[in-house]
Amino acid sequence: MITRRENFDRQRQRLVRGALSKLQVIADFDRTLTTNFYQGRKSLSLLGALRASNFLGLDYQRHSQALFDCYSPFENDQTLSSMARKSLMAEWWQKQFQLLIDSGLNRNHINQVIDSRLANLRPGVPEFIRLLAEHQVPLVIFSASGLGESALRYFLEKENLWSDNISLIANDFIWDENGKAMAVRTPIIHSGNKDEAMLVDFGCFERVKNRNNVLLLGDSLGDAGMAAGFSYQALLKIGFLNDKIQESLPAYRSLYDALVLNDGDFSLPLEILQEVIAYAD
What we know:
The protein is of the alpha/beta class. The chain has helices spanning about 5-15, 45-50, 55-70, 80-100, 105-115, 125-135, 150-160, 200, 205-210, 245-255, 265-280; strands at about 25-30, 35-40, 40, 140-145, 165-170, 175, 180-185, 215-220, 235-240, 260.
């Protein structure tokens, strides 16, 4: 669904006619690169997969679910100010990370979650990521996932998709010599503060500072702002609206140039990337 036709066409043309050397892709992970449903059931985020497992015990499951039930309704609540949502999301993740540490999270638990195959890439994503790697286009993955950078990298390695053009802007832990989580690294990323100002904190800015044409991919209202703080010349935003479509559509239409509905595939981003590459050739 093209939601802002004039801007979509203009930004797409700028991406295509711009040099391939000027392109970067910014993407969320959970429910953007991965599906919202799998085999008829709602897919779990990486943190949700851990919560559904018994790796950290029933007390962790109960307390983590209580945090989710309390805070998740605020994530896309348009009755709240942006500042109020950010404050609530920061509060949620601070509590969640402390719960993970107190519950004895270990690197092995993260590997077990990934190995359980509860998270699955959308059709077209592997081809998209491989094309980016082939042409050395930076892929910046922003993720507020509670399992963080360690989980994302292991997931991509398992899928044979990890390459040196990928930068992960994600939470992670400080581990002891036995692989036990001792503390969370700061700054903590949550759905309300995912933007390219974080690139400096995570050491990725030099890689993309001259890549002023941006293809942005996300599934939440907060994801639409992931390019904030970056000086871009072209910015095309594609959103994946997976749930509560009718009630969420007006807000998503105002922020994204195009929407992929009903857990659709990755054909639109892949088509645009192929067009950019073909024009460059």
